[in-house]
Amino acid sequence: MIALVDCNSFYASCEQVFRPDLQGKPVVVLSNNDGCVIAANKEAKALAHIPMFQPVFKIKNILKANNVTCFSSNYTLYADMSQRVMDTLREFSPIVEEYSIDESFVDLSHYNNDELDEIAHKIKERVHKNTGVPVGVGVAKTKSLSKMANKFAKKIPENNGVFVVDSEEKRQFLLSSAKVKDIWGVGRKHTIRIENTGAKTALDFANTNLAWVRKELTVVGERLWRELNNLPCLELVTETSVKKGIGTAKSFGKKLADYSIISEATSFYVAEVADLLRQQGSAAGCIEVFLQTNYFSNSDNQYSNKIIITLDTPTNSTIKLTKEALKGLKKIYKPGYRYKKVGVNLFNLVPENQVQTSLFYEEHKSESKELGKVIDALNSKFGKNKVKLATVGNREKDWALIKEHRSPRFTTQWSELLTIGGKTSSIKL
DNA sequence: TCTGGGGTCCTAGGACCC
DNA sequence: TCTGGGGTCCTAGGACCC
Hints:
By secondary structure, this protein is α+β, with helices and mostly antiparallel strands. The chain folds into 3 domains: 1-91 and 104-141 and 150-161 and 403-428, MutS, DNA mismatch repair protein, domain I (3-Layer(aba) Sandwich); 167-240, DNA polymerase, domain 1 (Orthogonal Bundle), CATH 1.10.150.20; 246-398, DNA polymerase, Y-family, little finger domain (Dna Ligase, domain 1). The protein contains 13 helices and 13 strands. The chain has helices spanning 10-17, 42-46, 56-65, 75-89, 116-131, 143-155, 168-176, 188-195, 202-206, 210-228, 259-279, 318-332, 367-382, and strands at 2-7, 27-30, 37-40, 69-72, 96-100, 103-107, 135-140, 162-164, 246-256, 282-293, 304-315, 339-351, 427-428. The strands form 3 sheets. A 5-stranded mixed sheet has the order 5-6-1-7-8. A hairpin with a 2-residue loop joins strand 5 (96-100) and strand 6 (103-107). The chain starts with a strand and ends with a strand. The structure holds a DNA duplex. Keywords: DNA damage, DNA repair, SOS mutagenesis, SOS response.
């Protein structure tokens, strides 16, 4: 049996752990640039009219009228809290799949079926005790069912955040109480196709003809259908897999026309992705740079372009990648536009120790490689970005994300530890 | 004035090879 | 007039997830 443990409105819960004064009050967390609502606690959800991904400026009045506390997203804090949750889950099982920052599949096959209900409640209580974060627990024979059990656990108050599918009756009950669109892995398009067959509930879908499912929804649909019928098709993935591509793309804090500032932002993002690349021990064979204006705007002239540069030899050197990226940026940049976003993607990744050197590659043990190592060492000792390339410049404030209401990084920075009677960084709009 | 970011998996179709 | 068939690799795009 498999448990799916999912943190309740995770980002908002993390903020509340350090702000006990906000217990029972509405809290939301905003996306980069404080653009959209990306998490809302149950008090905020209860207000309704706060749909996820709504731009903040459209619902500012509602937030204000209801005294909703808003936070900029603080990923450093959330990532650290997430690890604490995961560590607690490992006390219950050696096999844990970290599915996302706020949810995990936990293998419970070493427990007897009649213990599962008790174990599920224990998981919930211990995570809350250790981290302050509330979670829901769904238990079933397959990942897809445990995912749905988890949703159901949270939806019905009497479940108290836990639902265990340990009988055929409960499986049918669970599936018949979920609509087609609530099935994990069924999105907008698939919902339409499935509902066109007359199916209304997840149980209807599980009872439809498999050949139809295979034909219309491909193998992905077939696996899902089997999983809902208690036949496990999806294994728990415990090894963190090596990424196939690494990228970053962020909107600027304001629109930018000036090439030199955009190139500084680009350099900054290259350094960021190159760092991730080295951390996983890969080298990139290709680098893509793209640039775009604000496509929401009706008044601005629109332009977007991208360029993909194939490198002679795969590399993970920030210096080389920056050089290539800026060459590319120069080619696609056109003056006269107000740009909103720049992005960098690395792909064709290979293990760094298996790099095929090209015929003309002469710098096997180049100076830039040694230099890169020294820079990494300095940055890991003195803090991120303390040493950087001059191309990054020092005008970060001119392009960086807006995070007006970020809470302190309570758990990862000594200088930002929780203080009693300390200042707060959230705001009432 | 103000609209997120980072992923995975699968399929169809084109290019190319023998 | 008649013009094969099978295979691989790559890419773009669709669909979905958090």
